[in-house]
Amino acid sequence: MDIFDNFIESAQAKWKIVFNSDICAGCRTCEVVCSIYNEGVVNPELSRIQVVKSILDGYISEAKFCKQCHDPECLAVCPTHALYIDGVTGARLIDEKKCAGCKICLEACISKPKSIRYNSEKKVCIKCDLCAGNPQCVRFCPQGALQYIKS
Amino acid sequence: MTGPLTGTPSPTSGRVILTGKASVTYPLEFYMRSAAGGHWGPELKFAGFDGIIIKGKSSEPVYLWIHDNEAEILNAKKLWSLTTDNAQKEIWRSHGKKTKVMVIGPAGKNLARCSVILTDDGNTFGHGGYGAVMGSKNLKAIAVRGTGSVRVAKPNELLELVYKINRLITRKEDEKEPSHSRRQSRSYLSDKSHWVSSLDVSGWISPQLYEEAKQSKIRLGFQGCFACPINCGFAVQFKDRSIPSGGAVKCSDIIVSTRWEERYYGKETDYRPFGRVAYEYLKLCDLLGIDNKFARSTNNWFGDCIDNGILNDTNTGLPISKAGSREFNREFLFKVAYREGIGDLIAEDAPRFLHYLAKKFKKEGSIEKANKTLKIYEKHFSLSGKFGGLYNLSDHINNAFGMIYCAVGTCNRPGNKNLDLVHYHGFEKNIPTKTIKKVAKKLYGSDKALDPYTWDYKINKVITYERHRIIQDSLLYCEWALPVIFSRYTPDMLGDVTLGSQLYSAVTGIDITYENLYGPIADRLRNLERCIQVREGRRREDDWYFDFIFESNKKWTNKDDFRKVMDKYYRTRGWNLKTGIPSKEKLEELDLKDVLFEIS
After folding, report:
1. Which of A138, B489, B510, B532 has its CA 20 to 30 A from that of B429?
2. Chain A residues closer than 8 Å to B478 by CB
3. ipTM
4. What pLDDT band is residue B201 in, cutting at 50, 70 and 90?
5. Residue B27, preceding bond cis, omega within 30 degrees?
6. CB atoms within 10 A of CB B74
7. How many angstroms separate the CA atoms of B389 and B316, rounded?
8. How is residue B582 annotated by DSSP?
């Protein structure tokens, strides 16, 4: 076995959240719950899941969140090795103690809008960590627009 | 104004309330309230503010721009004449797409009393004609953007409580399709003239539109207010742009009778509820900032005027003979919004327009027509004193409970579906009658409170309603969510009526019991509201109906009986029997001594 095989296997995402835009009503319960569960306050700007809406032409809501990329850019560029992969869920996490708040990971994120956000109070970056295997956005979504599945 | 629950995970915490002197009420423009759902309220909290007080008037068109602890008054010259959607787009261009906007349309600008204030996702402050109030202040919009945080006292406890409540209301894992998850939150499923839930039921959206959605010619979307587990709204995107597509359609859009189009197109047509014509009417109302309750119902003052020959093509200059048609709707709405021709008079809204017509007919010598017109007013606006002109009352006062509730209602608060027990739940959730009667006994003292045509236990029911409605308007949640009286998901099918006080405690950290919050505290608010109107001149004689109403209800009641019931209500409330003014003792008991001086 190639010594690189292990790296590739651990770099593969294991679990992920998926989203169905047809069902989403744009209620933003996911944003509210994520921010209060993870940051202790209600603030959609501090939510790791973001709902983007187009409401003057029909009413279309899209939840945007970390795709838990197979080969994550954020992890590759982090200068303090604050980003790591959770052994169980495969979630790409930020260790807030190691995070310097430089936002290089945020710039490197390939998603639009960025899946990484900056908490200006704590001066660290935050991102979806799948809530240790029990993602609260999925739990609370009243329509079932978010699902938690194996990659 | 926001409430303590606004901007928290509490279910339906997106609401915001507005109070002030209404423009539509008749003959007095009196203190009233109007609430709106959506996402505007929480944004104000994220910006660091609890509420806004607007005094006076600007000399130039302006809008208010609120953002993260700052507030500015900005020039609205570019926005002033725009329809609501274009004004929103301009504001988003200037301040970013996440800005939440409440805005008036041309109807508000032109001081039409039938105008509303629209929030950007389609929710409105519908009652009271406050669009004209904003227009009279030269205030086009209030835009807000907040990136701050709302802190709650017990975040973990609150989250678990919210999870528990949401699962009493809806359970997505039990449903096969997403549309089903909202079905049990609804009432009146089987009566097609009322509001139904699923998009695929033809009473909600016309069969043809649903077919078009399946063929991807139009796109159906769900809309939900901030942190709401029910998400009752929907929107249609017409890909061919044949009909404006902005914003959501909400409960209030559907509750107006859906038979207006039948007048022209006949009963079994595609143009029925949420077919293209109805949808266009509602959307035009939104763009122009007109109240959709205002003239759409067939069983409404405007329909009655047509049917009784009061209004016709000649005396209005409108295609009255085509009422209900797309052509009529467009011409009517534009003429009203821009006050052209007869639109100038109709824009004064029904109470003033009908009285103007009656005077005109009398002057011309058409006494019979004048009387007919006044009768139409009495039928639909019911209250005979100075504090009338409220919409929807006529729907509620054909039963004992409604007659008391609406007579003393200081502000236009429609009924509460959840508290109605029989109609809401018995039908739809298949709650056994035995269970309903048990709950009625607990809430109202006896299941006799459910008999529509007797006075027994109705005062208990009225007071319970009033307490729930005013706390609802104070904490701010939506009546579709709370109180959770019944649930499909509990073994005994019962909910928990104390959830509102539990939410308040988890959010604020202040321990409060249900009995206290929905008791003396609610009564304090209720009496304060009453005193505001007493200061405006309200007395017992204003808590009364036209003879027409007693005529309509004569099968089961009469004026003497009603007078006695009202006596009992005033006694229960601690109000003076002669004047209807809260007594000195009552106000002292409720810690409203300072108010006493103002109303003495």
Report:
1. A138
2. none
3. 0.92
4. very low
5. yes
6. 16
7. 22
8. B
